[in-house]
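Protocol step 4 of 6.
Sequence for UDP-glycosyltransferase (Salinimicrobium profundisediminis) entered exactly as in the expression construct, tag removed. Do not edit the line below.
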Amino acid sequence: MNPTKSAALTAKKKILILLPDGVGLRNFAFTSFVDIGEKMDWEVIFWNHTPFDLSCLSYKEIKLEGRAKAKTDLLKRAKIEAELDHFTRTFKDPVYQTYKFPASQKGIKAQIKNSIIKYLIHSHSSEKGLQELRSKMQASERKGRFYEHCKAVLEEEKPDLVFCTNQRPVNAIAPLTAARDLEIPTATFIFSWDNLPKATMVVDTDHYFVWSAYMAEELLKYYSHIKPQQILITGSPQFEPHSDMSLRQSRQDFFEEHGLDLSKRYICFSGDDNTTCPDDPQYLDDIAESVRQLNNEGRSLGIVFRRCPVDFSNRYDAVLEKHQDIIIPVNPLWKKVGDNWNSILPTINDLALQINTIIHTEAVVNLASSMVFDYGIFDKPCLYLNYKVKNRTDKSWTPQKVYNFVHFRSMPSKKAVFWLNSKDEIPEKLEFALSAKPEDFEETRKWFKKINIHPPQEASQRIWEKIKKIVLK
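Step 5 output, structure tokens:
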């Protein structure tokens, strides 16, 4: 072997893990990801754009200072809308229009921005036009101070790879563009199982890490400029803590800590954000009424309520007061550091709380949540809410709007979950789900294996092996 190449292979490599927002913390800062990399002789440094102080975890970090230009954000908004229009035409499917959010019309500035976005959408609706928008976002960032700051950091640190934990934030464009301009390899992780059909691909990188072969096919379907050799199938680290025995509490300790009754079996009601499910409080009330009915018939059940981590509203207060003898709130341990939803950050303690909530409850009830996979790992049932409540908060919203989303087409069959199609059938379906046997979850397991490569606890190891191959090419 060439001596120079041999030295390059054995020299310690450096990776900058780009955290453009807080959603990557759980996957890459709170799991064993860093430990695995360091044992493989990597120097791991977080390039941190969040308010979270990673030094408290004894991690090396460089603060990412600055933000994307306003022009870039307008281009991003136009690109997302234009992509959804492009998907609608290409696949002849109106579902992509349901991913759009209505733009604010308050104030002259907002109206001017909306007019610019509409023009950009109209003039860049083709595949070629979309590529122009991607190029324009990068060109816009190259003219800003944020880009110059990123470039200076990269020139000083000279990393072997910049790995972005999330493909969505506009603030990731400048550091990744600077890296590519300096010919430093770049990669991004596709954060969630539902992201690709929603046109949330904001960054361009050399490599894309995905959960499964199914997600790899999606990536090629929606982004024809990405080549198969750029895609790396690894799974998501978010499921690794489920097998971490050090996080687990005994049933008695968990029940004592949260004021639960050891004589009861508990069902977890997992809340959504207000946009996803505006009728969540009414659903919680219906589940509580059904549990009360079952308890009157001799059962001994309770509800653990885990709200959506980014929902700090008071919309559940009346229901919690009404059913305080049945519902015990066990709130996520997330920290609010700003006014926007993406400034609400997870904490490392919430990993243990979520795992123990799953372990010490019998089933989960929610609307369309990926918690079906978290409970499925433990052969526990998930019941999906699938009916209109009597006093609907938003007359234009229905649960079917959510279940029509593209990512639910990955479900191998309707048997992957238990469906609550009316309030009246909740008691019977609850009893049926609570008596389910491991063999009853075959369709759930099949769905999870389709969504996330198995074994799920080896995702971080697989990511590092792929990173190694990228750098040693």
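Step 6, annotate. The chain has three domains: 3-68+144-236+457-471, 70-139, 241-451.
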